[in-house]
Amino acid sequence: MAGPLGRLAFTLPFADARTSVELAQRAEGDWGYEAIWMAETAGPDSFTLAGAVLQATSQLTLGTAIVPVYNRTPAVLAMSAGTLGQLAPGRFVLGLGSSSHAIIGDWNGVSFEAPLGTVRDAVAILRQALAGEKTDYEGPRLRSKGFRLGCVPPEPVPIYLAALREKMLNLAGEVGEGLIINFQPLEAMGQITSAYRAGAAKAGRDGSSDEVVSRFQIAVTDDVAMARGIVRAGFGGYLAQPVYNKFIAWCGYEQEAKEIREGFARRDREAVGRAIHDDLIDRIVILGNEAQCKEKLAAFVEAGVTTPVLAPLAASKQDAVRMIEAFAPARNR
């Protein structure tokens, strides 16, 4: 049941895969969390770990936030989603996105081109496949003909889309059933939700009640200066990536985006750190003592986030677990 902090969730994986499954069990049994959202970068594969978590739990919703549409074909995505939909009917949400130049282009060696068209085509093929239809789709970017999924889930698998700027937000509202966002300042929530709902209206539906999932980097600490230092060290390269760099510029931080981009290109870490100033960090990351963090999360919920997803900034697994436990819905009812 949602309260002032929305339908509070947290992110996996952290630590190793086995520990992640154990934490999911505690999340459901001891802490009262209703949902977990899986991140995927260079750690455990989201679908493999999702299967383990869904089998180890009985009630919580599990979603991917996100798996990219570039490094798996739509048929492979459908097989993974169909399998999880059969293992845990009604408990799995397929969260998709375009990801970034670094993950797709550099790590996977796949051309990161035309993200809007690629996401649109992937969703169209997935809709056919997950419905048990034989695919018959030819798009500008992707095509599939004659594929019939052999593991059609007994209940529909919702598809949520990750989006940052206006065009992808429009597309998410048009072809998705929920929205996944990240690193947005509070003041950008209005333009984000408006763009999403405009896309939904284009498709003839009202998107105002759709789930809005937002991952928040969070540090419960009395040493905010130290936490800001962790953010600068850990996320400078992240904010230099074109997708996020353009996003923070779109949110009103044009000069900071320029300085981050140019400093990163020169490999000037000090310049990047200066551009990620205290005010910017405090607007996109949740830092402070427990009460302050809850107040900041509540403000985002008031602005339109329905599902805050906690991603602890912690020096150890034990510290991260303490943060998740401190925010446990069962403790805070």
What would your notes on this structure say?
The chain has 333 residues and is of the alpha/beta class. It has 2 domains: 9-219 and 290-332, Alpha-Beta Barrel (TIM Barrel), CATH 3.20.20.30; 222-288, no CATH class. 50% of the residues lie in helices and 16% in strands. The protein is built from 15 helices and 12 strands. Strand 4, helix 3 (74-87) and strand 5 (92-97) form a beta-alpha-beta unit.
Here the CATH topology of the largest domain equals TIM Barrel
CATH class assignment of the largest domain: Alpha Beta
Strand content: 15-25%
Shape: globular
Number of helical segments with 4 or more residues: 15
Mean pLDDT: 96
Q: How many DSSP E strands?
A: 12
Our Rg estimate from Cα atoms comes to 19 Å
Widest beta sheet: strand line-up:
1-2-3-5-8-9-10-12
Count of domain modules = 2
Corresponding CATH superfamily of the largest domain: Luciferase-like domain
User: Helix fraction?
Assistant: 40-55%
Distance between the termini: 10 Å
Q: Could you say which structural class the secondary elements and strand pairing correspond to?
A: alpha/beta
Residue stretches low in confidence (pLDDT < 50, at least 5 long) are none
What's a concise summary of this model?
With 333 residues, the protein is of the alpha/beta class. The protein folds into two domains: 9-219 and 290-332, Alpha-Beta Barrel (TIM Barrel), CATH 3.20.20.30; 222-288, no CATH class.
